[in-house]
Amino acid sequence: MVGWMATTFLALVLVRLLFRGLYLVPYVVDMNPGFILIPLAGMYFGPAGVLGVVLATPVGDALCGMWGSLTPVRMLAFGLTALLAERLWYGHQEEEGPEADAWMARHGRARILLIGLPVCLCTSGWLALAGAMLRLYPFAYLFCLHFLSTLVFYLLFAPAAHALIRHEWAPNFGTWRTVMANVITPGSRPFLGDVLIWSGGMAAAVVGLLASGLGYGIWPLPIPHLGLRAGIWVWIPVGLALLVQWVGLCWRDRGLPKVKARDGRFDGLYIPPLEKR
Fold first, then answer.
1. Where are the domains of the chain?
2. What is the pLDDT of residues 11-37, one digit of tens each?
3. 8 vs 273, which has greater pLDDT?
4. Cis previous bond, 222, omega within 30
5. Of 108, 121, 131, 225, which has the highest C-beta tally within 10 A?
6. DSSP secondary structure letter of residue 48
């Protein structure tokens, strides 16, 4: 687990350094294709990946000259993004074995692409909300810029990165689920959790943009001039919508895939005997 955390940490920091100095909004939104590694770290490395993402964020900010008031928010947003991706990925995971591999071969790429929308909404929503509350830039401008950039990077590179990890990394080093020798079964498949995750992210985007445009006359375009900002009637609904997404994330814990022992009993975490490890 420590190795996966270190791998996530080093990969994220190195990719950010490769694109150091490239900004969409100077010192607020950087051009970071390495964003795609954040949800993938959550999917394949689990809690170790989430922790690696959280630790890599302030180090990357410091090395790239972006350390500031948004750094704690980036840590929160990126950590939640990795956790959300892990929950969506494993919330409907099939049992291990040839059938699961065949199912993943047919539907894995589609699942990766579908997960991209809520994770990009989550990250962009939190960062844009924080930027607006700190009076840096209006919510509508920051949200659209960050969302479109991360979504483009995700759609372009995430499927290939996922295939590389699944076919090259996982067979040799395993994932955080397989290293414990557990067999994952579908669990209760909480549909409501999925609805809350998706609707919370979409609501934050739609409500934030409409409240900013209709209430304050601030739309994503034209580019806003310095000092132009919206107020609490954007902050409050966006914050509530993002909390709905968080509720959906926590709700999924009630129906996470169960861990099945080799004798077929569902009685918690299965730890194989020492001689079989």
1. 2-276
2. 999 999 999 988 988 888 999 899 999
3. 8
4. yes
5. 121
6. H
